[in-house]
Design goal:
The chain is mainly alpha-helical. The protein is built from 9 helices and 7 strands.
Length: about 300
Amino acid sequence: MNGHDTAGATVGRRAEVIAALDSVLDPELDESVMAMGFIESMEIDGGSIDVTFRLPTYWCSANFAWLMATDMKMALETLPWSTAVTVRLVDHFAAQKINRSIANGLDFDAAFGGEARANLQDLRITFREKSFLARQETFLRILLARSDAEHVLLTSISAVTAMAETEESGTARAASRYLQARIWVGLSPDGQAPAFTTARGEPILSDSLQAYIRAGRRIRGAAQANAEMCRLHLAARYEGTGPGEGTALVKRPACLRPPRTGPPGTVCRSVTLSMAAQAEPAHPAPAQDVPLNNT
């Protein structure tokens, strides 16, 4: 393979890595780690993939960080040419434990021992159901702008699949995201099955549809508000960088850094740090304050 072919292969593989990472979601936000700007860097050397990611604050919940790291590693390992995958979390209170567990194939309980208080599978199911309701609400609003509730509730899975393939981009994306959410919660893929049910497969009645949609709107709104807050924190913490651009210098406001001994009411100020020189703080919070299981 000549130099031109090698460069082309590298570009192609980078695109595949980006696509794989884009399929991985922050479970709480229902946004991809790429879209949120969590990916700091990615390196490809033959079949070896090395990804570094960062989160909006030092105290972001360890359980969600672990889920994202695990999902990234699994997504990258499905690439047919990948031979070794390393996923590394930086600048986070639990980075060492999470990185060690991901590298050694340990589960969350093994990584955190007695500190873990939540079943991550239950947590994943809870947020997938929330994602289902939020995506369903988005798609239902689009269809209800075109037709009445009775007709919309008669829509079949095959009709939604056709919309995902043929409609304009906004509708097609909403249809595709909703179909994916149906798979997550285990609903029937049968083309003739009704497209709109509860996450448990129960029918939605037309006279209760508006109340049902309002509940989904609240869930979607909360997730979007959290996502926007995360973007603001990330922008303040890593000023001037975007998804996958790497971070040579980090400007991290003092109010986002871990608390240290000192007078209360410290004024928030920017501090420039070398990413390569960063280490875990010398004064971690007591174990009972570690936010392993925030939801």
